[in-house]
Amino acid sequence: MGEFVRVEVADQIATIRLDRPKMNALNAHVQGEIAEAAGQVSADPAVAAVILYGGERVFAAGADIKEMADLGYADMAERSARLQASFSAVAQIPKPVVAAVTGYALGGGLELALCADFRVLGESAKVGQPEILLGIIPGAGGTQRLPRLIGPSKAKDLIFSGRHVTAAEALSMGLADAVVPDAEVYSAARAMVARYAGGPAMALRAAKQAVDTGLEVDLGTGLEIERLQFAALFATEDQKAGMRSFIDSGPGKATFTGR
Ligand code: CAA
Q: Which fold has domain 201-249?
């Protein structure tokens, strides 16, 4: 249990809860706790899926500007590596991950949400990459994960201008997967991943790794990654259970062990 980041597990769903009032500013300490939380939920076989959540008011307003303001190059060269490693630990959680976004997700806040597989936004949420207004650029994956998700020109618009995007616009550009009433953000995110409890964990892990790693390589290499992951699943109990259940009882009735 961290000082500003808690992991709460219920019904096989882990919630990584940011709790650093007023705005969940992501200082170095919080970044370290996010990495620890990501490692914990990744390693816990009782966790089937993960929700990133900042509470009812705000997701996160970005890296802690007050902590960074007086740093020089040498400091930031080292700190930025830890910042990226922390967020990459979230992106590499080998389970379905959804970000439940209320209020602001700005700068590092949006970059953290980009490490999830899906994003559910409250209807009054505002997201953006306002770093340019501070004389810097995104440093926790924004120039890389955002264009991969929404395309380079839309990403450049957000990164060059620093403007805030409404939930409705985020939905239209594929940055949000669902927009719901503000009070329902957490429950909607939970409903989105609840279906993975009791799921074929090894196949879900393989699917996520094949998609994410495949996007970073040429098509031939990606297909080879897929082929190896596909063949490897024939070593799992869940493949045997899934196919036997289909033959005996029809589609969608298998009980999986996650092994
Ligand atoms: N770092 C440190 N403190 C922050 C913060 C941040 N990113 N964002 C907000 N705060 C603090 C404010 O300074 C203020 O503190 P005090 O009450 O002690 O004065 C408190 O949180 C509340 O903020 P506001 O009074 O500004 O609240 P608001 O409702 O008027 O505005 C906001 C909210 C639009 C989020 C505004 O605070 C804001 O624009 N924040 C900065 C957003 C930003 O630039 N994020 C990018 C950070 S750089 C980054 O993230 C780099 C990277 O890529 C990793």
A: Lyase 2-enoyl-coa Hydratase; Chain  A, domain 2 (1.10.12)
